[in-house]
């Protein structure tokens, strides 16, 4: 009751949804994709197999996996006009701004895969998006570096191809480091889907009106960009650089505790997890593995470990159940792999496109699906007569 109108939460309140893709237990720190734990998938699967699992509901046989991989690689190139489109951006454009633009532009290039009620067209649109996101992300990176675009090489795996498109240059041979490829594939697996987070809910809400699937994914990219969501991995690195030295950690913990200070400790806390984010645990180990194998001594990793240690013992963080989340360690690995911080959320978007499009398919296929229409609690004035300007 607002004193004016009775708020009826039952009327078309379709802010929530029914889904069988991903299960999270925030208190226990559990994350399952179609029943398989993220720990096992990160350790034993590969990104395209997880993509198939999310899309189709089961782990594929070897033959089915091979044909799915081939089907995806068949779509890795983008229309040459998209290269022209991308070159219209300023060189200093943020890669996420470019991704919002070029992925939305895909809706102007592919008219043969947008009849959302045709299963075949839904499948083609889904595979096009999964295949082209790494190509577009690599183009956004190359453009920011002032280097020529690389075409995909379909002899390579998904992660190898992405690293090739990002880091190879015409002037010298480039061989993908298997350590980097393995870390890249693991990072893609860990970011693939996460139930009804802000960007996935954005894709579902946009898709619920029957909008073009490419445009819906562009909407998800826009939502993911925020520093409270996918933009946190970039914000974590910027925060660690600002903290600079472990002696400064108490000052930043105090700022994070101060309700009058808008500062929050990026990489900590979660809407759902009130325990360790299981993805952070996998990434923490991967961080040490990758930096060790690459022989990288990154003071930011030591600083991050010190910050984690202090924050986990801080009474405020204990009381608020704030633990490191998926973004806390991902940036450190990505930095060690050679990516600039501006590309971190782009890589998150490449991976999350699998979750977004799997959730979109699940929603579109649901015969009970209706247009999303979140409700509001009205707090404005009651009805009143118009007042002529001379009497205001
Ligand atoms: C992702 O939803 C998903 O699944 C997202 C994601 C995915 O895979 O899609 O997991 C990816 O977005 C991970 C989150 C990345 N964001 C950050 O690391 C940014 C820093 N984190 C915070 O902004 C915050 O923790 C949020 C946005 C993630 C969650 O905010 P909430 O919902 O307000 O968190 P909460 O309700 O659990 O907060 C409880 C209290 C609040 O204080 P009170 O209002 O109770 O006084 O803890 C405070 C918050 O203000 N708090 C923090 C904090 N996070 C929460 N205080 C200081 N530092 C923080 N990081």
Secondary structure layout:
Elements: E1 22-25, E2 30-33, E3 36-37, H1 38-44, H2 47-56, H3 62-73, H4 80-86, H5 95-105, H6 119-145, H7 158-167, H8 178-190, H9 198-207, H10 213-224, H11 232-243, H12 249-257, H13 278-294, H14 299-313, H15 315-319, H16 326-336, H17 344-365
Antiparallel strand pairs: 1-2, 2-3
The structure holds s-citryldethia Coenzyme A.
Dominant shape:
globular
Ions, cofactors and other ligands present here are:
s-citryldethia Coenzyme A
Mean pLDDT: 93
Instruction: Return the structural class.
Output: mainly alpha
User: What is the N-to-C order of secondary-structure elements (H for helix, E for strand)?
Assistant: EEEHHHHHHHHHHHHHHHHH
The number of distinct β-strands equals 3
Low-confidence regions: 1-13
Task: Report the sheet with the most strands, covering strand number, pairing sense and barrel closure.
Answer: 3 strands, antiparallel
Report how far apart the termini are.
30 Å
Helix content: 40-55%
**Multimerization state:** single chain
By DSSP (H or I, 4+ residues per run), the number of helices equals: 17
Radius of gyration from the alpha-carbon trace, in angstroms: 22 Å
In what range is the share of β-strand residues? under 5%
Pathway: Carbohydrate metabolism; tricarboxylic acid cycle; isocitrate from oxaloacetate: step 1/2
Catalytic activity: oxaloacetate + acetyl-CoA + H2O = citrate + CoA + H(+)
InterPro entries: Citrate_synth-like_lrg_a-sub, Citrate_synth-like_sm_a-sub, Citrate_synthase, Citrate_synthase_AS, Citrate_synthase_bac-typ, Citrate_synthase_sf, Citrate_synthase_typ-I
Protein name: Citrate synthase
């Amino acid at each position: 009751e607002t004193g004016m109108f009775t708020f009826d939460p039952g009327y078309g309140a379709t802010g929530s949804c029914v889904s069988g893709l991903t299960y999270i237990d925030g208190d226990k720190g559990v994350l399952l994709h179609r029943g398989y734990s993220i720990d096992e998938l990160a350790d034993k699967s590969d990104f395209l197999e997880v993509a198939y699992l999310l899309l189709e509901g089961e782990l594929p046989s070897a033959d089915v996996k091979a044909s799915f991989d081939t089907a995806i690689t068949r779509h890795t190139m983008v229309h040459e006009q998209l290269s022209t489109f991308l070159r219209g951006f300023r060189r200093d454009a943020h890669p996420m701004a470019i991704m919002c633009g070029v992925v939305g532009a895909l809706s102007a290039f592919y008219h043969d895969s947008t009849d959302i009620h045709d299963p075949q067209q839904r499948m083609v649109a889904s595979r096009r998006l999964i295949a082209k996101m790494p190509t577009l992300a690599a183009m956004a990176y190359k453009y920011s570096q002032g280097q020529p675009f690389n075409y995909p090489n379909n002899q390579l795996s998904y992660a190898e191809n992405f690293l090739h498109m990002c880091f190879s240059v015409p002037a010298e041979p480039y061989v993908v480091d298997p350590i980097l490829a393995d870390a890249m594939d693991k990072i893609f697996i860990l970011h693939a889907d996460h139930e009804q987070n802000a960007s996935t809910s954005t894709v579902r809400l946009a898709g619920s009106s029957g909008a073009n699937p490419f445009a819906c994914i562009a909407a998800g990219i826009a939502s993911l960009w925020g520093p409270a969501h996918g933009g946190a991995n970039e914000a974590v690195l910027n925060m660690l650089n600002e903290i600079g030295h472990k002696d400064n950690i108490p000052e930043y913990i105090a700022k994070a505790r101060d309700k009058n200070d808008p500062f929050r400790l990026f990489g900590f806390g979660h809407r759902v997890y009130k325990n360790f984010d299981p993805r952070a645990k996998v990434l923490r180990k991967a961080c040490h593995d990758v930096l060790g194998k690459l022989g990288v001594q990154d003071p930011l990793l030591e600083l991050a470990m010190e910050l984690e240690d202090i924050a986990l013992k801080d009474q405020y963080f204990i009381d608020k159940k704030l633990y490191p989340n998926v973004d806390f360690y991902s940036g450190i690995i990505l930095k060690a792999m050679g990516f600039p911080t501006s590309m971190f959320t782009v890589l998150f978007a490449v991976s999350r496109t699998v979750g977004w499009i799997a959730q979109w398919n699940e929603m579109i296929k649901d015969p009970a699906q209706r247009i999303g229409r979140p409700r509001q609690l009205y707090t404005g004035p009651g009805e009143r007569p118009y007042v002529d300007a001379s009497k205001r």
